Amino acid sequence: MVDIVVLGATGYTGRLIAQYLATHPQRSSFTFGLAARSQSALEKVFRGLNLSKDDVPAFTVDVTNPSDVSAVVQQARVVINTIGPYWRWGTSVVRACVHHGKHYVDLTGEVHWIKDIIFELDYAAVKSGSIVVPCCGLDSVPSDVLAFVANKALKSFGGPSTTIDLSTSAWKLGGASISGGTFSTILTALEDVPKHKLLAIRENSVLSPVKGTHSPRPRMLYTLPYSDRPVYGAWYFMAITNSQVVQRSWGLYELARRHHNATTVAPFSYGPNFKYEEFVILPSALYAVMYSIIFSAIAALLVLFKPARWFARRIMPGPGEGPSEKQLQSGSVKITNITTSNPNSQGEKIVVRSIFQGRGDPGYFLSSIMISECALALALDGATLPQISTGGGILTPMTAFGEVLIERLKRSGYIDIESELLVGTEPRKTR
Questions:
Q1: For 123-139, how does the pLDDT look when each residue is reduced to its tens digit (9 = 90+)?
Q2: Burial of 187 (0-12, 13-18, 19+ CB in 10 A)
Q3: How are beta strands 32-36 and 164-174 bridged, if at all?
Q4: Cβ-count burial 297-334 (b if 16+ within 10 Å, e if not)
Q5: Contact status, residue 342 vs residue 213, Cβ threshold 8 Å
Q6: DSSP type of residue 266
Q7: CB neighbourhood size of 429 (10 A)
Q8: For labelling, which of 5, 146, 166, 295 has a CA lying 20 to 30 Å from the CA of 276?
Q9: How many helices (H) and strands (E) does the chain have?
Q10: Does the predicted model carry a pTM greater than 0.85?
C-alpha cells in the first residue's frame, strides 16, 4: 500500500509528476508508486529518474480493463490520474476509487465528462467517503483559487456579509502553447461525444448543484476594470471549463450555506449574485478582435469539417509530447483578477485585485506541481482540509482543499498568490 499512485506515469506530464514527487521536500513523509500500461516504458521512467522499485513500487495497468484498475486503486490512498481523454478512459478509474473509498485527482478539462460522473457517482462518493477532484491542473486551479482568495479579501476588508457581484480574471501566458494531450481531447470531444452533451456545457452553472445568476456572455473584446492602464483581451478557450468549475465551487458553498451549518460556511459563500468570467490578455483592442475572429473561424472549421481535423492532427503535437527542459523553465503565467462586491447599505462597492503568478511552463510544469500538491493535501493534510470536503463527493479544488492548497502552492517556490484592496478603505495587501 502506498499513499499516492500516479496513473499514466510514462506520459509526459506523468513523468513530471513522478519527478516532482520524488524530489519533494516532504518526500520522507509519504510513499508513492507509478503505474502505466507498458512495463518497458515504465522501466525507462525509473531509469530516467533514478528511482528504485524498492522505494517506488511499479504497477502495470490497462485502464480499459476494470479488474486491472480496481487492483491498482486498492494499492493506494490517493490516485493521480493523467490518462486522457477522460471521456474515454477516466470513468472506470473514478468508479473504482469511489467503490473502494479512495481519493482521486486528475487533469481533465472535459466539462461534459465531469457532468456525467457527478450524475453517476457523486452520491456514491459521499457514501464511501471518497474525495474526487477533477481539474487539478492549469484547468482549473488558478481560476478557482482566484475567486476563493478574492472572496476572502472582500470579506476581510468589508466585513463577513460582503458578497461578490462580478469576478474577472485576465490571463497572460508566457511561452505556453496547447499541449498534444489537450488538443487530442478537443478532437475526441468533437468526434466521439454526443452533440447534445457538448451543447449542454454552455449552459450557466451546468456543474453546480444550485442554479446561479447568469455570468456575462462570451464576446470578441474584453477589458479589465480598475486597471492602471487599459488591458484588452479575447475569449480564453479554457474559459468554459474554468468558469464551470468556479461556479460549482460557488454552488457547493451555497448549497452548504442553505441546508447545513450556515455560520460555518458563511465565510466561504460568494453570495447569491456571484458572476465569473475570464479572458486572455492581448496587446491591443484591435489585436483582440482579430484574434477572436480567427479563433472562431478555426474552431468552426474543426467542428464542421473532418478534413480540417485530419490536417490539424498532422501539424499539432501528439499526446505525450511536450516542451524541452529549457521551455519548461522559461514559461510563465500571470493571472490578474478584479473582483467587485455588491453595494453595501450605503451603496458603496469594494474592489480587490488578486494575482496568481507562476514560473515555468503553465500547461505542463506548473500543472504537475498543482496536481501533486492536491494529492499531497489528501495524503498528508486530511485533518486540516475544509469541513465541506470531509464528507466526500465530487468536489472542486477549493471546496476540497481551500487554504491548505494555497499554502502548499506558495511553499512550492514556483507560485505566488496575493490580494490587495483597490476601492473601499485604505489600500493594503493580503498574502
A1: 999 999 999 999 999 99
A2: middle
A3: unpaired
A4: eeeeebeeeeeebeeeeeebbebbebbeeebbeebbbb
A5: no
A6: G
A7: 11
A8: 295
A9: 17, 15
A10: yes
